From TrEMBL, chain A:
The keyword Signal does not apply. It comes from Aldrovandia affinis. GO terms for biological process: early endosome to Golgi transport; intra-Golgi vesicle-mediated transport. Keywords: Golgi apparatus, Transport. Residues 647-660 have a biased composition (Gly residues). Pfam families: Ig_TRAPPC10 (PF23604), TRAPPC10 (PF12584), TRAPPC10_1st (PF23036). Residues 1081-1255 form the TRAPPC10/Trs130 C-terminal domain. This is Trafficking protein particle complex subunit 10.
From TrEMBL, chain B:
Belongs to the TRAPP small subunits family. Sedlin subfamily. It comes from Aldrovandia affinis. The keyword Endoplasmic reticulum applies. It comes from the Eukaryota. This is Trafficking protein particle complex subunit 2-like protein. One of its GO terms (cellular component) is Golgi apparatus.
Length: 1269, 139
């Protein structure tokens, strides 16, 4: 360090506040080193005015020997050269000496300071022991200090300090040093505060004058910069930066105001034409050259900005904020360009580009110079903007100077280059040694095409790589696209292609229509240059259909395709297609999507199921995207044929499949989802909806279901990889392969107009099976547009069918006994009915076929339309009925109707109807059904088969008849119930009953004579009284007959219905009557009180024939007695029988023989109670068993026995006991048991059936129970 | 005022884009598209911070020589981009914010329309009118 600086104005970082020294030079020199070392050692707190936060600063000082011209003159605002403190050094300890010289010297020094009104001074008195020893006669040491204080520091005693033994290592010396230093620091800070405050005040007032006409920004700039310098000097970079930012803002505001029409005079100097564009200079802390230009008002706007930014950059780098530099640099460059434009400064074309380019590189190199490599890479998001900007500017310079072309620059370009280079001036000395300086780079780049390319590629690749590294793919692609444009201008499409494709795919995936169109046009140009015919045609097709282009452009691209398509082998004729000619390929296969869209497909007939050979038409709706009408040589849809369905399964299966698909396809129409146009607004159409279908897996052998499930039909669409590359390919040309072997739907010579076109195909239907439309292919000359997959799946089915005959009733049920119409349906299938073909029906007697004079037949087509009508001829012989069929082509339906009649079988359908007596129905399920239906089988011989067809017809008997025998005492009545079991109503007339056995019986009808209507499931009851004159008939046979006709058909003839039955045991043998009498002394029966039950059994007939065969009689002297068992049964538990409820009795077989039984019963309820039932049974002793009576049904026997067994109350047990006692014989254990047999219904007359007796409630009952029956 | 206003769907395709000098339309499309890089960067940076205190306004996305591009993202990740001429210095941050607010309100109205299918390009006249007003105003 050189303390004695001749020129104090040094604008370097070594600037320090100036402190002067005066007095003993040698003394100061000896202390200088320790002083400069120790002064910055401890920080001091700097309290500042205007509420600025206090700061801790380390003070340093530049010690300069005091000279008078160091003191600032009036009006000099320089702060850097301003001495902040003046120190006078003396080690005088001799009063004499002091008085002689030192005091005078101090006075002179003080006067000089006062003259410049400087109050920042300090007198240092250095004491040392060595001196004291030498001079023994000295005054006490304090005296000199005191004298000085007295003489100079009249009020400020702190302006004089003592430094003791500064060169010794004693604690005293240390103490003395530290107090001295702190004093020094304090005084320095005081001086700063005072002087800077004053300076700032002056500066502010200067700024306030800025509206005055003579005010100059440059002057003000210098003043405020002075402040910034001082802050920088004090290491207060933040504060220094603030000063520059304020200047920056002020300047910007002036420029903006000027733009708004409020220009300041001083701004005129900045509006001068720009003559130098040598870029930013950031390598020096202070660019003195520029600063002087500013100072002298010669600076241009670029100079001003450059200088300002270089200072800001320096300070920011001190503050360790390099990334702010880059950010500010970009803003600055943009801003400068704007400001020059705003101020309408004339600039040579390209000059600004040079300036920006140089500046960008300068900033980048400056940043690189002060940062680690890793740090740079981590922060390339901050620098990439500059890289991109630089490459952009270099490219525009290249374009300007003719460096971006195939031919290189022409003379005009060269002139321009020379002009631009002139503005760069000479290279600055600080970068002269650097090989990579921006200056050299620019000069080199502009010097030759190759160098330009090298530099441009360097920059562009750097920018792209950085963009990629920080994930800004779109920016990277945009730069790439710009690079591609460069390559294209250089005539190098091969290298451009990749970048263009990359950018295009990006825009396509994100659906930006305009960029897509623009980029695709570039891609197309690229393909054209590269002779990639197919790609070029594909892109042309897309462009021709692009709504963002003008009609002329679209037509142009369309013509490109058409002209290629129409090129014949003789290519000489096509001169303008020279690019394409060289690469003539026989066929160009393109994706259809760009050319036309399949919108709709319609089948006729809509079911899309036809038989073999039938006509099936398919109507396509194709939307052409081309701007002009295009003539297609051929439009073909390839068809995949499979035997999966249809065919063998015949019509039912095929029809079912057709219906299944018809669910989402009304009327045979398939609508295709609207694809976004190739350059559409929606990049990713919604994923298609799930297409689910029920799936059943049947085992091939027995058609049983092995598994069932739901299948997603369009999995391949849903699960398609949505990667960046896969989805971007247009339906790739690799995928566009034409199926050759398949069958085709074809039409030739179609003209597609722009917009929707309807095209009709005739579908092949030669073989039965399923036909799936796979591809659509439009051929225009040598160009084929192929739609590789038609989706959703479009299928139609062709079936083949065996002829079939079906016979079914016209109504729901066929009724027996009436003529019924039966419908014959013949489905001809593949069989063609020829002349002479006839159906041969085998006749049966029970079901004759009624011949009608005319039997019309309808012939229907497979679609169900009536084709023709004809009359059948029916010929009957004894065995067969022959029906001649009308002529019918295959796959038609013949329908006709025949009348048949099924006779109701006469007589009972089964023998056990006899048993249905007196309402005691015995249900036999198997008998029931066999009675109501009659099955007839008809065998039919068909002309197409050697086998007979068996047709089963089921007829229902419309009626069900029941009969019952009713008795009143000895009088007998027969009731027949006829139930209508069919669905229709009938008229019934002439019910009649006849006895067929030949016995003389008289039947007296009690029925109405008129016609009766019996509705469905209603019944008709007919009653006859049965009388006989002689003996009662044993088992008479009867035949009931009635005539019926359907109620609806008026005038129809009546058909008979007959019902035969037999009755047995018609005579009444016994009459049973009962009476209930109240207990003694009571007028009425009471609940809980015993009553008497008197049963009277009377014999009404002599021994009759039927009875005599019975074994239950005992003969005694020619008198027969019958053993009977009576039993009182009360099923409704109204009565409690007290004592025996049953008993045996012997009844003489004689008219009017009476037997009375007295019993006691107790009513359990009050009210009109029905009498308990009294049952009468024949009692057959066990030895009478062996001859089993023919009429005895084992079932009945079991019933009666179980009846006895089940009534296991005490009464019946007792009665059994009494039976035994009465019988007198102990029955052996085993099978031979006495037997009970019920009488037939007609044999016992219950005289007291349904009688009731009034029972009053018991007297002491609290609860009244009334049973009303 | 604004020279280009764009509404971009969550999937980054444009729902609406309109620019005032129509001859430069393509350039604006490229500019807006590229600005999505910065939008995504900012969104992901915000995602790391507190989510609920999110500021919808993304500020200046990036300046170019001629234009300033501002961004805004709704909670449903629909992006608004406004491009302003660099020479237009009267526009401060607050004005840009209020433009975005207006845009967002109008966009909300569009979304509330039951006949609007979310994801379709915006064709609302009201929205268009509002955008036109923002482009003309103080120009």
């Amino acid at each position: 360090m050189e303390p004695l600086e001749e020129n104090p104005i040094i604008y370097t970082m070594e600037n320090k506040p100036i402190v002067t020294y005066a007095g003993d030079h040698g003394l100061f020199t000896s202390l200088y080193n320790s002083l400069t070392q120790q002064l910055p050692r401890e920080p001091m707190e700097w309290r500042r005015s205007y509420g600025r936060a206090p700061k801790m600063i380390h003070l340093e000082a530049n010690f300069v020997q005091f000279k008078e011209d160091l003191l600032p003159k009036e009006g000099n605002k320089a702060l850097l050269t301003f001495p902040f403190l003046h120190i006078y050094w003396t080690d005088c300890c001799d009063t004499e000496l002091y008085k002689a010289s030192v005091k005078e010297d101090i006075v002179r020094w003080q006067n000089l300071l006062k003259l410049h009104s400087t109050v920042d001074w300090l007198i240092v008195v250095v004491e040392s022991d060595t001196k004291k020893k030498n001079k023994t006669n000295i005054l006490p040491r304090t005296s000199i200090v005191d004298k000085i204080r007295n003489d100079f520091c009249n009020k400020q005693s702190d302006r004089c300090v003592v430094l003791s033994d500064p060169l010794k290592e004693s604690s005293r010396a240390q103490e003395s040093w530290s107090s001295f230093l702190s004093k020094l620091r304090t005084l320095l800070l005081m001086s700063f505060t005072r002087n800077l405050g004053r300076f700032e005040d002056d500066m502010r007032s200067l700024r306030e004058q800025r509206t005055e006409p003579g005010w100059s920004f440059c002057n003000y700039f210098m003043v405020q910069e002075e402040l910034a310098f001082v802050f920088e000097m004090l290491q207060q970079f933040e504060d220094a930066l603030v000063q520059y930012d304020e200047l920056d803002a002020l300047f910007t505001q002036y420029v903006l105001n000027s733009g708004a029409g409020d220009g300041a005079n001083w701004l005129g100097s900045f509006c001068a034409p720009v003559s130098s564009w040598n870029g930013l200079v950031l390598r020096r802390p202070i660019d003195m050259e520029k600063r002087q230009q500013v100072q002298s008002g010669r600076a241009s706007l670029l100079d001003m900005r450059s200088y300002l930014f270089s200072r800001q950059c320096t300070l920011l780098l001190f503050l360790q904020r390099p990334w702010e530099v880059t950010q500010r640099a970009l803003e600055l460059l943009h801003n400068c360009v704007q400001e020059l434009r705003l101020l309408e400064v004339s600039v040579l074309q390209g000059a600004l580009d040079c300036w920006v380019f140089l500046s960008c590189l300068e900033v980048l190199q400056r940043i690189e110079g002060c940062c680690e490599r890793a740090q740079l890479e981590a922060n390339c998001s901050h620098t990439v903007g500059l890289w991109a900007y630089a490459s952009e500017k270099l490219k525009s310079l290249g374009c300007l100077c003719g460096l971006v072309s195939e031919n290189g620059p022409d003379s005009e370009d060269l002139n321009r280059t020379v002009d631009l280079l002139a503005g760069l001036g000479i290279e600055r000395p600080e970068t002269a040694s650097s090989m990579q300086s921006p200056y050299k780079k620019l000069k080199e780049a502009l010097s030759s095409v190759d160098a330009f390319e090298r530099h441009y590629l360097d920059l562009t690749h750097a920018a792209m790589e950085m963009y990629r590294a920080i994930g800004r793919m779109r920016s990277a692609r945009l730069v790439g696209k710009s690079l591609a444009e460069f390559y294209m201008r250089k005539g190098d499409p091969r290298r451009a292609e990749g970048f263009l494709q990359d950018a295009l795919s990006c825009y396509v995936s994100e659906g930006w229509a305009l960029p897509i169109t623009h980029t695709r046009r570039q891609v197309a140009a690229c393909h054209k240059l590269l002779n990639q015919t197919e790609d070029y045609l594909q892109a042309s097709a897309l462009l021709a259909g692009d709504a963002n282009l003008t009609d002329e452009e679209r037509t142009h691209f369309c013509q490109e395709i058409l002209s290629y398509a129409n090129q014949t082998a003789d290519t000489q004729a096509c001169a303008q297609c020279h690019a394409l000619r060289s690469s003539l390929s026989p066929q160009a296969v393109l994706a259809m999507g760009a050319f036309a869209q399949l919108r709709q497909l319609q089948f006729r007939p809509p079911a899309a199921v036809v038989h073999v050979g039938a006509a099936l038409q398919v109507e396509l709706c194709l939307r052409s995207l081309m701007p002009v009408a295009v003539r297609l040589e051929q439009l073909a849809a390839s068809v995949h044929f499979s035997l999966e369905r249809g065919g063998a399964q015949g019509r039912a299966g095929a029809g079912g499949a057709g219906r299944g698909r018809g669910a989402h396809r009304p009327a045979g129409t398939v609508r295709f989802p609207e694809e976004s146009p190739p350059a559409g607004a929606r990049p990713r159409p919604q994923p298609p909806a799930l297409e689910l279908q029920e799936m059943q897996d049947r085992s091939p052998t027995d058609r049983s279901l092995t598994s069932a499930g739901v299948v997603c039909r369009n999995v391949h669409m849903l699960l398609r990889r949505r990667g960046s590359s896969a989805s971007l390919d247009p339906p790739g040309r690799a995928a566009v392969a034409v199926d050759d072997g398949a069958q085709l739907l074809k039409t030739s010579e179609v003209t597609l107009l722009p917009g929707n076109n309807s095209i009709l195909f005739t579908a092949p239907s030669g073989e039965p099976g399923t036909y799936t439309l796979r591809q659509l292919c439009a051929t225009v000359g040598r160009v084929q547009f192929v739609l590789p997959h038609i989706y959703p799946v479009v299928q139609y089915e062709v079936y083949s069918q065996e002829p079939q005959l079906s016979v079914e009733p016209l109504a729901d049920d066929l009724l027996a006994g009436l003529p019924q119409r039966v419908k014959f349906t013949i489905v001809t299938g593949h069989y063609c009915i020829r002349k002479g073909d006839a159906l041969q029906l085998s006749n049966t007697d029970a079901m004759p076929i009624l011949q009608s004079p005319s039997c019309p037949a309808h012939i229907l087509s497979s679609a169900g339309e009536l084709v023709s009508e004809s009359v059948l001829s029916v010929q009957s012989s004894e065995k067969v009925t022959s029906i001649a069929l009308p002529l019918a082509p295959p796959y038609h339906t013949i329908e006709f109707q025949l009348e048949v009649l099924c006779h109701i079988p006469a007589g009972p359908a089964r023998p056990d109807t006899q048993r249905l007596t007196n309402g005691e129905l015995q249900h036999r399920p198997q008998g029931d059904s066999s009675e109501t239906t009659i099955d007839h089988k008809v065998s039919i011989d068909c002309p197409w088969s050697i086998y007979s067809t068996l047709i089963a017809l089921t007829f229902h008997i419309p009626f069900k008849a029941k009969h019952s025998l009713l008795s009143v005492g000895k009088r007998k009545y027969i009731q027949v119930c006829l139930q209508n079991v069919s669905e229709v109503s009938f008229h019934l007339v002439e019910p009649s009953l006849a006895e067929s056995g030949g016995t003389a019986l008289e039947l007296l009808s009690l029925n109405a004579k008129t016609q009766q209507v019996v509705s469905s499931s209603r019944s008709l009851f007919c009653v006859w009284e049965l009388k006989w004159t002689r003996d009662a008939p044993l088992s008479p046979h009867f035949e009931f007959s009635v005539c019926f006709s359907p109620a609806r058909a008026e005038g129809c003839d009546y058909k008979p219905f007959r019902y035969e039955f037999q009755l047995e045991n018609v005579c009444t043998l016994y009459s049973v009557s009962a009476d209930i009498v109240p207990g003694p002394g009571a007028e009425h029966c009471h609940t809980g009180a015993l009553c008497g039950l008197e049963v009277c059994i009377t014999r009404l007939e002599e021994l009759c024939e039927a009875e005599s065969e019975d074994t239950g009689l005992t003969e005694n002297d020619g008198l027969y007695t019958a053993k009977l068992l009576y039993e009182v049964v009360d099923n409704s538990s109204n009565w409690a029988v007290c004592g025996k409820s049953s008993g045996l009795l012997s009844m003489p077989v004689a008219v009017s023989a009476v037997h009375r039984v007295q019993m006691e019963v107790m009513p359990l309820f009050a009210g009109n109670l029905p009498f308990p039932k009294i049952k009468l049974f024949k009692y057959l002793p066990h030895y009478a068993l062996p001859p089993i009576p023919a009429e005895t049904d084992s079932c009945v026997e079991k019933d009666s026995v179980s009846l006895l067994d089940e009534q296991t109350d005490t009464a019946s047990l007792r009665s059994r006991g009494s039976i035994h006692s009465l019988g007198g014989v102990e029955p052996p254990r085993g099978p031979p048991l006495p037997r009970l047999e019920p009488f037939d219904a007609g044999q016992v007359f219950q005289g007291s059936r349904a009688r009731q007796v009034l029972v009053l409630p018991g007297k002491d009952d609290h609860v009244l129970e009334v049973n009303v029956t | 005022m604004a020279v280009c206003i764009a509404v971009i769907a969550k999937e980054n395709y444009p729902l609406y884009i309109r620019s005032v000098p129509t001859e430069n339309e393509l350039k604006f499309h490229y500019t807006v598209h590229t600005s999505l890089d910065v939008v995504e960067e900012k969104i992901s940076a915000v995602g790391k911070a507190l989510v609920d205190q999110r500021e919808l306004y993304l500020g200046l996305l990036y300046p170019t020589e001629d234009y300033k591009v501002y961004g805004y993202v709704t909670n449903s990740k629909v992006k608004f981009v406004i491009v302003v001429d660099s020479s237009n210095t009267s526009l401060r941050d607050n004005e840009i914010r209020s433009m975005f607010r207006k845009l967002h309100n109008s966009f909300t109205d569009v979304m509330c329309n039951p006949f609007y299918n979310p994801g379709d390009p915006i064709q609302s006249k009201a929205f268009d009118g509002m955008v036109s007003a923002m482009m003309v105003q103080a120009c």
